[in-house]
Amino acid sequence: FKLSTMDKVGNRLNKLQAHLGSESELLVAPNNTSAVAVEATPGSIWNGVPQAPPDPILGVSEAFKADKDGSKMNLGVGAYRTEEGKPLVLNSVRAAERQMVADMSLNKEYLGIGGNPNFCKLSRELILGADCAAVREGRVSTVQSLSGTGALRIAAEFLGTFYKGAAVYLPNPTWGNHKKIFPNGGVAVKSYRYYNPATRGLDFQGLCEDLCAAPAGSIILLHACAHNPTGVDPTHEQWAEILKVVKAKQLLPLFDSAYQGFASGDLDRDAQAVRMFVNAGLEVIICQSYAKNMGLYGERIGALSFVVADAGVAKKVYSQMQQVIRPMYSNPPMHGAAIVERILSNKENYEAWKLEVKGMADRIISMRTALHSALQKLGTPGNWDHILNQIGMFTFTGLNSAQVTNMTKKHHVYMTQDGRISMAGVTAAKAQYLAAAIDDSVRNC
Question: Pairing state of beta strands 195-196 and 301-307?
């Protein structure tokens, strides 16, 4: 015989009841077109999902927002602030956006999978120099990415697919997200020595020893400038020695460039390490972000470039980067790329931007001087010269976990638990307050 539609539904629901157990009442009686009262199933199917811990950086900002104390400082988040402690939109960015609004030829159509082609061209020329042989010869494949994080994620999945078996060596310490991005892309993570807590400077000997011990063909992640979280960079001479090791061991360098221009105030100087490796003939991967140097934090705009030995290979690499992007997010947003394009391609905008980048870098450098001077005046125990010697947005203070806790609970100074502070969040008006908090924490914790 042929079952009615409701009979079929009833049978299926009763099978579901049997699967769920006896706690549920009969859902639908067989051979009955009337539904019986249904008892709600207990809880959610997602009950077994564990609560994730708060993000170590964004969690600091949430705690800061909840604090009602008027003297509080947020030195955890890596975002530039003015002398008044406010977010900054660069004048060059506003000028670019005004030009975009006035341009009636612009539309809201999809970008291609690889993003805005002119943005990609300008980005590789910014980091490598327009006169770079690899650029001129078409040996650089570039795609637009969702800021530096997105560039790293695309690179990780590409490496996991086409460079199987090689681990990526990360400096110890490094930006926390590095340790999550690469395994999610199928790349194992290892580390090499980088920071020396005793000197609060570079462990150059340990770095070189660990790179020498890495298997040939390993991926080496290098911070192009303004190392996060330590603010400790190799000297030009040390970069040259690192290059020798990388070449001798046939390692694959992957540069994370999040602070070009923002570290020293000089775009070319901050790109010197990347250019040194590329000009030496190495194949190199470069991840760029415009969050810091253009203040485009929320636009999520960056670029991923592969510098390869042959223009034909560059085309194949580009095609496979598109294959990674397509199922991940289809294609990138256009607004941030259009801003960068307008700044880098327009001489007036570009010159104005360079001045603003230098202004931001100079203010951070001046805050290092102010904090160091305040600690000197207080006679805070220890040597604090590392505050002056480190570079870029962050300073690795050397404060231990108990001291950091005291900074937050007693003085309302919010920072990551490893003792990193964002110098961009320090102002002239608060430098003395910050120094006093550090002094108290060092003396009493």
Answer: unpaired
DSSP state of 309: S
Residue 143's DSSP bridge partners are 304
Looking at the annotation, which residues are catalytic? Answer: 175, 256, 292
Amino acid (1-letter code) at residue 175: W
Residue 437: count of CB within 10 angstroms of its CB: 22
C-alpha span between 145 and 285 (Å, rounded): 14
Distance (Å) of CA 280 to CA 129, 190, 243, 251, 275? 14, 26, 9, 13, 8
Secondary structure (3-state) at 192? strand
CB atoms within 10 A of CB 307: 27
Q: How confident is the model at residue 77 (pLDDT cuts 50, 70, 90)?
A: confident
Paired tokens of 73: 């400082």
Tokens 């929320």 correspond to what residue?
Answer: 298
8 A C-beta contact, residue 36 and residue 28: yes
CB atoms within 10 A of CB 411: 19
Beta carbons of 431 and 374 less than 8 angstroms apart: yes
Residues 6+ apart with CB under 8 A from 283: 252, 306, 307, 308, 309
- Cβ distance 396 to 412 under 8 Å? no
Q: What share of the chain in percent tops pLDDT 90?
A: 87
d(CA 262, CA 357): 6
Q: Name residues whose C-beta falls within 8 Å of residue 389's C-beta, 6 or more positions apart in sequence.
A: 201, 232
DSSP state of 111: P
Is residue 434 within 8 A of residue 426, CB to CB? The reply is: yes
Half-sphere exposure of 63 (CA within 13 A, CB side): 20
Q: How confident is the model at residue 28 (pLDDT cuts 50, 70, 90)?
A: very low
- For 439, residues 6+ apart whose C-beta sits below 8 A from its C-beta are 375, 378, 380
Q: Model-level pTM greater than 0.70?
A: yes
Listed in sequence order, the residues at least 6 apart from 311 whose beta carbon sits closer than 8 Å to its beta carbon are 137, 138, 139
Give the number of C-alpha atoms closer than 13 A to the C-alpha of residue 374, restricted to the C-beta side: 22
Q: How far apart are the C-alpha atoms of 318 and 316, rounded to whole Å?
A: 5
- Residue 342 near residue 349 (C-beta atoms within 8 A): yes
Other beta carbons less than 10 A from residue 282's beta carbon: 17
What confidence tens digit (pLDDT) does each residue in 388-407 have?
Answer: 999 999 999 999 999 999 99
